[in-house]
Amino acid sequence: MDVPSSVKDKAEGVEAELEQLQKENAALRLMLQVMRNKYKMLSEAYFRESNSQVPTICRGLTRFDLCEDQHSHKDILIPQLQLAANSSQVFVETDPRDESHIVKDGLQWRKYGQKVTKHNPFPRAYFRCSMASGCPVKKKVQRCMEDKNFLMVTYEGQHNHEVNPSIGQSLSSPSSSAMTSISGFPNSVLDNPLRSAIDLDLNLSSENSSSNGNGNGNDDDYNNKRSMEDYIAVGT
DNA sequence: CGCATTTGACCGGCGC
DNA sequence: GCGCCGGTCAAATGCG
User: Fold this and answer.
1) How far apart are CA A33 and CA A134, in angstroms?
2) Are A193 and A199 in contact (CB under 8 A)?
3) pLDDT in tens, A49-84
4) Taking residues A34-44, what's their average pLDDT?
5) Do the Cβ atoms of A91 and A152 come closer than 8 Å?
6) pTM for the full model?
């Protein structure tokens, strides 16, 4: 019983895409989980602080962390978001056995410390930007406790030098197969939480359309991708 | 030999 | 005041 090679190719293509989508789905689930945790912490902190009338400092919380329920807390969250405007967090999928803390984000970093923190058994590595002398940007890299396949990378500060615009693209290079920006990395234009969510969706589609081979897919591939996306869109 | 990394020591902020 | 914890420093070490 012969199966036409074109059908076989299609099936393989769909399988590959399915695998890719499953990876992305895992990344999104993880992100959602982290967001839930942070939102829970934030809301608890807010209700605690609002009782005592003491301003809440929410360093480390980012715009996208808060967008999930922004409509109900819009008024109180905005000042806190501005406090965190200089920091951002991304997730990078890596081999869980890889302990190098290396994230290929297109910048040069110099490691200056490593610590084991209380709530995460995995060591946290501290890096400084070494692309220009005196650049104040730092990043922290730590394996995500919820999913060992991901590194949590926290950037702080703004570069005092030119940053190649293509760096943003390198963030989702094959070496980091699922890199999901949580919020306002200085070189990514994420002006508001909703924009972040929209970008995320667009990335899913655009990554799919370029992830399968040379990026010059033929019409069949295109149709397969469309139907797969349509299928997923209907299913959600 | 120069530069990057490692790692224990140190410091400052915060809560009790 | 004390202890805990996260972040940084700096000497030792490794590597090209």
Assistant:
1) 36
2) no
3) 555 443 333 333 333 333 333 333 333 333 333 334
4) 65
5) yes
6) 0.54
**A162-191 residues near strand C (Cβ < 7 Å):** none
Q: Is A112's CB less than 7 Å from nucleic acid strand C?
A: yes
Question: In this structure, are residues A154 and A88 in contact, taking their beta carbons and an 8 Å threshold?
Answer: yes
Structure tokens at A125: 């590595």
Could you tell me where the DSSP H helices lie in chain A? 5-52, 63-66, 70-83, 167-170, 193-211, 219-235
Residues 6+ apart with CB under 8 A from A115: A123, A124, A126
Domain boundaries, chain A: 11-50, 87-156
The amino acid sitting at A221 is: D
Closest nucleotide relative to residue A119's CA, C1' based: C5
Q: Please provide the size of chain A in residues.
A: 236
Instruction: Give me the amino acid identity at A230.
Output: D
Contact status, residue A140 vs residue A122, Cβ threshold 8 Å? no
CB-neighbour burial class of residue A169 (10 A; exposed 0-12, middle 13-18, buried 19+): exposed
DSSP string, A143-207: E-SS-TTEEEEEEES--SS---TTHHHHTTSTTSS-EEE-S--TTS---SHHHHHHHHHHHHHHH
pLDDT value at residue A127: 92
CATH superfamily of A87-156: WRKY domain (2.20.25.80)
- Which tokens is A181 given? 């920006």
In this complex, the answer to whether residue A97 has its CB under 7 A from any atom of chain C, a nucleic strand, is: no
